[in-house]
Amino acid sequence: MEKKVLPGHTNNWRTPLLFVAFIAGLLFLHSCKNEKDKASEPMEKAIVPKVEEDSAMVFLEKQLSFGVRVPGTAGHLATRDWIINTLKRYGADVEVQEFKASFLTKKDVPSFNIIARMNPDEDRRIALFAHWDTRLIAEKDPDEAKKSQPIPGAVDGASGVAGLLEIARLLQSNPVKIGVDLVFFDAEDQGNDTNNQSWCLGSQYWSKSVAENEKKPEFGILLDLIGAKGATYSKEEISARMAGTIQDKIWQLASVMNKGNMFVNAQIGQIMDDHFYVNTIAGIPTVDIIETKPSGYFAEYHHTHNDNADAIDKNNLASVIQVVTAVVYKSSDKSF
Ligand SMILES: [Zn+2]
Question: Which of 29, 79, 81, 310 is 20 to 30 Å apart from 9, CA to CA?
Answer without folding.
Answer: 29
